[in-house]
Amino acid sequence: MSAGTNKRLLLISNSTLYGSGYLDHAANEICDFLADTRQVLFVPFALYDHEAYSSTAAERFQAMGYQLTSIHAQDNKQQAVENAPAIFIGGGNTFRLLKALYDYDLLSVISRRVNEGMLFIGSSAGSNVAAPTIKTTNDMPIVEPPSFTALGLVTFQINPHYLDPDPNSRHMGETREERILQFLEENDVPVVGLREGSMLRIENDSIVLKGSSGARVFRRGDAPVELKPGERLEFRN
Q: Which of 122, 155, 188, 229 has the most Cβ atoms closer than 10 angstroms to its Cβ?
């Protein structure tokens, strides 16, 4: 952790959990995280229809007592980030999201503002871009960003929607675990597989697993480690 930084992040695996509505499973954690910070800047770039996406997000945040404004409607997007006390980057396609962050030259300003104390919430693709790169996303590269390098707000990679192998499945393709192990053959960076319903609450150097399901942590040369909700992750940010 660099001197003078005050990073606070909430990184959510998925926006919708089976049997519940948009962000319902994360609502209590979001409210606790934001507390009295009532204004939130929304980044809808991971989906094609920014207007519809921002409308859905604004309605959900209003129900929680927060006012959400979408960055896509702002003429000066960098200044919108400068003025925001909190930012929420929604899920969708990670490649499309990262390309837009490059197109609007937002990576450095978001990273700096988070290090200065702007609250950061990410969901799915929005959590992916908090990592050093997007190399552990599950998405198809439907567009080509200038680089896979992302915000680097944490020192580990994230794999949202992590799926355990199904012993009853006849599918013969690679499992999620096999793909992450292949990543580690080429990259010496830890990977946190966040199962559906899980999220990471980060307060400076403290990282705690939250939500209703566990996570799986992969490090090169080590056996994967299981984490349960409430347990801390030993990473330095």
A: 122
